[in-house]
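Reminder to self: tokens first, then the designed residues, so the page reads top to bottom the way the pipeline ran.
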């Protein structure tokens, strides 16, 4: 059975409370339940983790190279400036998909830059929680590996 690691970065534990007009009213727990259930239906084990810490996310990315078939990551604001997370993604061989809940390209200029997307398979941005589901589908269809 395929297993996918879903990583959410800083401030995504605040989903539901945090700028609901941008990120919606649903919580991180709602998101994690939705993606886990969706994965199960497609015979994919989905493990979800969230951290506000750059180093923790980096350690999890490294670990995934041995323990998972792919990563779906929303690096939060680290997307825009963390060369360390970019290098961590580049250091592994497993496919990584970048997801953003909001359409980062329609927002402030600093959000329109992703230093991580170039080392990912691609980026899904602006589809809300659905973006994570689209990424799971990509893996389900046998792509990415
Ligand atoms: C985000 C977009 C980022 O710019 C922001 O810093 C986040 C969330 C998104 O999912 O839309 O924390 O990654």
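Designed residues (145 positions):
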């Amino acid at each position: 059975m395929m297993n996918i690691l879903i990583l959410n970065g800083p401030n995504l534990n605040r989903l539901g409370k945090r700028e609901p007009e941008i990120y919606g009213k649903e919580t991180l727990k709602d998101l994690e339940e939705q993606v886990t259930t969706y994965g199960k239906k497609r015979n994919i084990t989905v493990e979800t983790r969230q951290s506000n810490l750059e180093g923790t996310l980096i350690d999890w990315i490294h670990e995934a190279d041995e323990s998972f078939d792919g990563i779906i990551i929303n690096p939060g604001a680290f997307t825009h400036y963390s060369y360390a997370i970019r290098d961590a993604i580049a250091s592994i061989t497993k496919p990584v998909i970048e997801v953003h809940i909001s359409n980062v390209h329609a927002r402030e200029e600093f959000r329109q830059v992703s230093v991580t997307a170039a080392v990912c398979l691609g980026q899904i941005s602006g589809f809300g929680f659905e973006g994570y589901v689209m990424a799971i589908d990509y893996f389900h269809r046998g792509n990415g590996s």
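The pocket of DQA is lined by residues 11, 74, 76-77, 79, 100-102, 104, 111 (CB under 6 Å).
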